[in-house]
Design a protein that fits this description.
The chain is built from four helices and seven strands, in the order βαβαβββββαα. With 174 residues, the chain is of the alpha+beta class. The chain binds zinc ion (2 copies).
Length: 174
C-alpha cells in the first residue's frame, strides 16, 4: 500500500493520515524468508502519519502471525511478533543530511510504501529462533523421542556440576 505523504508535509487538506493495512494474500509469501516462516497467517500495520516538529512522523504498530518450526523439537507452532513506535519519514534524497535511527527514508520521494516499511521494522524484531513453548525439552539426541512427552530409556550420565554451569551458560546464549 502506497501513501502519498506530501499533503501532510505541506499541511494541506489532511493534517494526518490514518492507515490500517493487512498484507494481501498474494503478497504473504514474500515475507516467509524474512520471518523464517513455513506459512504466514497475517501481517497488519496500523497507525497514523502526521506532522511533528515540522517533520512528517509516523506512529505505527505492526503485528505478524505465522507458522514456524521449534528450534528444539521441530514442531510447527503459530508465532506472533509485534512491534511499534514512532519514526520521522524523510525522502531518500535527504538521507545524507538527516542521519540517525529516528528516520525512515522512502524509496520514492513523497511516497511511503508500507510493505517496505514493514520489512524494515518487523525485520529487526525477528528472533533468530522460535520455540514451541519456553521450556520445550526438545528431542533426545540418541533416540529422537520428544522429551516433552516424558523421559526416554536412553542412559543419561550424571553431569559434573561444573559442566552443568557451562551448559546453562550456553543454553542462555542460544
Ligand atoms: Zn519444541
Ligand atoms: Zn532417548
Amino acid at each position: 500500500m502506497r501513501i502519498n505523504i506530501e499533503s501532510v508535509r505541506k499541511k494541506e487538506a489532511a493534517n494526518s493520515i490514518k492507515f490500517d493495512y493487512r498484507v494481501e494474500e498474494s503478497e504473504k509469501n514474500n515475507y516467509k524468508i524474512l520471518l523464517g516462516a513455513k506459512e504466514v497467517g497475517f501481517i497488519n500495520i496500523i497507525g497514523e502519519i502526521s506532522q511533528k516538529n515540522g517533520l512528517v512522523a509516523i506512529d505505527y504498530e505492526i503485528e505478524a502471525n505465522f507458522l514456524a518450526e521449534c528450534a528444539r523439537c521441530g514442531k510447527e507452532t503459530w508465532q506472533t511478533v509485534e512491534t511499534g513506535g514512532e519514526k520521522y519519514i524523510a525522502d531518500k534524497s535527504e538521507e545524507d543530511e538527516k542521519a540517525g535511527g529516528d528516520f525512515y527514508f522512502t524509496e520514492t520521494d513523497g511516497i511511503l510504501e508500507l510493505s517496505d516499511f514493514i520489512v524494515e521494522f518487523l525485520g529487526v524484531e525477528i528472533p533468530y529462533r522460535y520455540l514451541c513453548f519456553d521450556d520445550c525439552q526438545g528431542l533426545c539426541q540418541k533416540c529422537g523421542k520428544d522429551l516433552n512427552e516424558g523421559g526416554c530409556s536412553c542412559q543419561k550420565k550424571e553431569k559434573n556440576p561444573a559442566f552443568k554451569i557451562l551448559d546453562d551458560f550456553f543454553e542462555k546464549k542460544e
